[in-house]
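Dear colleague,

Thank you for sharing your sequence with our group. We've completed the structure prediction you requested, and as agreed, I am returning the results in plain text so they can be pasted directly into your records. Please verify that the sequence below matches your submission; if there's any discrepancy, let me know and we will rerun it promptly.
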Amino acid sequence: MSLVVKQFGTEQTVPSHRYGPHVRDHFLIHYVLQGCGTLTAEGLIHSIRAGQAFVIFPDQITTYQADAVHPWHYGWVGFTGDEAAALVAAAGATMVSPVIQCRHNLYAVVHQMQQDLELADNRLALTGRLLRFLALLSDGDSRRNSSSRALVEKALWYIRSNYSRAVTIDETARAVGLSRSQLFRIFREETGQSPKQALTALRLEEAYRLLLNTSLNAQEVAYAVGIPSASRFSAMFSAQYGLTPGRFSKSSGSGSQRRNAE
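Please find the predicted structure tokens below.
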């Protein structure tokens, strides 16, 4: 079995601790021992509390933030390898549904990994702990796989496949066999957001990726993500990331990609 531990650790975060938006080249799983906060990924905002884990996927743009009053105390493990995707899938996590309710205290396993650093063959020990971590994660409560959740995931798949053109919410609703109002209702119930908010977030996440990894200018990126107005794109990007597309390109270095720990 090919598995490589890339990083691990524990932290008591400060109130409102924020990390992101960032992109990684490996899987990263946080287990929350105490506190609460949010994860933003794939155009969705997930609330995460003690006793839950959240999965970040390779090449996925994510931002997570601890609560201002009850910040997270968590442990995390980052890993890669040929079997990594299958093991994460076995735990029930997807890019659209990355939060897992856990039966076991995974924080203890991460703490044991820190102790394993003192061993002579710590690489083998760490791989063993990682397998234990993933086995306990997979033993969590099976989550509700409702028809509404399945329809939301289908709608998000359709949006991700078509956001680069002028796809509409009406068209998305028809693609999953619902009316616009029905799609809006199940989106609100399952994600707390509207389909339009998810579409906008996905477009901006892809714009972030393109500006970070290519030499395309702001106008070219705007058209690539289905926003025909460069000025509108600039305003939307600034509202989301705090910088204009041009300033972001200069600060990050056009065509470069930054990978981050934690």
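Summary note from our side: Residues 53 and 100 are 5 Å apart (CA to CA).

Kind regards,
the structure core
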